[in-house]
Amino acid sequence: MKLTVQGIEDQQPIPEKFAFGVPGDGEPMALGPNRNPALTWSDVPDKTRSFAVVVVDPDVPGDPSDVNQQDKTLPSSMGRVDFYHWVVVDIPGETRAIGEGEDSDGVTPKGKAPGRTAIGLRGINTFTDFLASDPDMGGTYGGYDGPCPPWNDERVHHYHFTVYALDTESLGLAGEFTGNEALKAMEGHILDQATVTGTYTLNADLRQ
């Protein structure tokens, strides 16, 4: 398979229009345009019956204690975990593209609802956990929400956009399913996959 993520070149920085968090005016971070990029894919296996899209950042600090804290930094060497930014399954087998802004066009406080959309079946992303204690932002975050790495992190984050071609019309998922649950359900059903990886940082020293 071949995957194109419009506006994002493999191993190159992700434009701010696709980000949840952007550099602020006098502040380390402000809310960004948060548009999902357009995806197009081709060279699909003959027996494909559906697709799934997963976007994951494997560079998120496992210990969030010092995230976005003044006078503290997160060393590049510290332990890291996966943070899912987009989980969509049961995308119809005839689909070959998702339009820019079709699943997200701006930050939605408290999140977008998971479930059936015109694209496919939305799962939840990890902002659901990350913002759970925030009274203004806490909620269930379905669909796409873009990069927002800690601004005091010494590591540039990598965002893996992957489209999976599957041999089943439905993975049988429902409710608030996660990226890990989607990947588990895909086991034994993946015919092919394609990935484009973009990078992003809010650390002013790394952006120069």
Characterization of this structure:
The strands form 3 sheets. Strands 2-12-11-6-7-10-9 form a 7-stranded mixed beta sheet, with helices on one face. A 3-stranded antiparallel beta sheet has the order 1-5-8, with no helix packed on it. Strands 3-4 form a two-stranded antiparallel sheet. It has 208 residues and is mainly beta. It has a single domain, classed as PEBP-like (Phosphatidylethanolamine-binding Protein), CATH 3.90.280. The protein has helices spanning 127-130, 179-186, 204-207; strands spanning 2-5, 12-13, 21-22, 30-31, 39-42, 50-61, 80-92, 97-98, 115-116, 121-122, 157-166, 190-200. The longest helix is centred in the C-terminal third of the chain and has 8 residues, at 179-186.
Name some characteristics of this structure.
208 residues, mainly beta, Phosphatidylethanolamine-binding Protein, 3-stranded antiparallel beta sheet, 3 helices, 32% strand, PEBP-like_sf, YbhB_YbcL/LppC-like
